[in-house]
Amino acid sequence: MVISFLTTLLFPPPSSLFVNTMSIISSLSLANAGYKETKGKHMQYSKFVNINVTTSKKPAKDQEVKLAGRDGMLLFYAPAFLIGLVSFVAFHDGDLRLVMVISALTVHFFKRVIEVLFVHKYSGYMSLEAIIPITLSYTISTATMIYAQYLSGAFAEPSVDLKNAGVTLFLIGITGNFYRHWILSDLREKGDREYKIPRGGLFDLVICPHYLFEILQFIGVACISQTLYSASFTFGTICYLTGRSLATREWYISKFGEKFNKDHIKALIPYIF
How many domains does one find in the chain? Predict the structure, then answer.
């Protein structure tokens, strides 16, 4: 029954071993990364830089390559943004759904680049060792999602069309995410590197509303796309951001103690968790 229901929502899997394999890898690797976040094994960026990294795993200081936080974050997103731009040319004869998927992904990463350059404030440096896998993840997943969408053009449309719902969720998600990033940035004065407890904009209810809206954004992309890969990637993203949110809440509790209202402020979803 579940499979029958999914066939009304998704294109059939393409005859591409690469895309079908990546559907499994993306969901499992991101879900595993989210699980590791809850166990204290964090992706080394933002407030979790150098947390729980054992000395034995660290390269010698004279060998470790570090970039300024702004440069590291720019490397996260710029290649995926360029993939989106190139895709407009490479798949210029694509159907409406393909154009919508390329547009959504390109706008998403363009927004990220703009935030890196003009919105975010940075507290330090990032290791190139941490930057590379994150950059590859964004770049490969973007290229794969677009390619999977291109291959879906060989199939009939799903019986349930989710494009309009997807556009709505995407716009709510990207707007809400940007607003929360602006609030986080506004907490710091120029040159200030200290973390503070954010207030307003749902931060009084959850510590990671920016992740909540990012999840809505990727659900929107999955609805526009309606491919197995986009659904698998979105599932993995939800798992990862959920784990990251729980870890972030624990970090705020450990750093601010009684100043942080842990009974009222949840991790990701207001009043729930």
Answer: 1
